[in-house]
Predict the structure.
Amino acid sequence: MRIDVLSIFPDYLAPLELSLPGKARAKGLLELHVHDLRQWTHDRHNTTDDTPYGGGAGMVMKPEPFGEAFDELGVDERTTVIFTTPSGERFTQALAHELSTRERLVFACGRYEGIDQRVIDHARERAEVREVSLGDYVLNGGEVAALAITEAVVRLIPGFMGNPDSLVEESHEDGLLEYPVYTKPQEWRGHDVPEVLLSGDHGKIAAWRHDQRVRRTTERRPDLLAATVVGEWEIERATA
Ligand SMILES: Nc1ncccc1[N+](=O)[O-]
């Protein structure tokens, strides 16, 4: 997979050189390029924004730099252009899986009051376009979302995670939150590891873990339960 990120704050994307994506690059699974959008401006001040038509506060990002960047990057039908914006569809693990199958992702990170709509309309004429939001809050720009989406997507690329089993039973993979985990020491500041985990009885351990997932999801994210097939009896048992 190749990922390109367009931003007027490319340094914001520096963490992508570390940890997860860095490993993927080493394995040749991922090609990552962060671009300063200003390289596609031609005026003395490298202008990337201007006042909004129709008035109103704030500034809007101009279309030309994005258009020239798409041209130089060869944005075409094999590319998925992701505009990170608070007015986008909610980013989910399901969307992470969908995006992990793509050949090329290009993130267009907006600042200020957003990007001229014609950039999105033009992109739809030449590529797959997704407008994606991290959540219902307003950040100063789309870079944080590009970082988060990249990390969630890259770790799903086949062959990327050393142990693919670690992708199973993750929160949000099957609609249930993760169970609590413990490691040595067995007793710590008056807190003991649950006996069942020391029993060696794998059946009982699996049942306990499932109950913990149902209990946590019931208590913290009942909205997820609606989408998850969990029997009433499982909720009864887990929350008893
Ligand atoms: N939430 C956001 N706020 C500003 C820009 C982008 C955003 N997002 O979630 O992608």
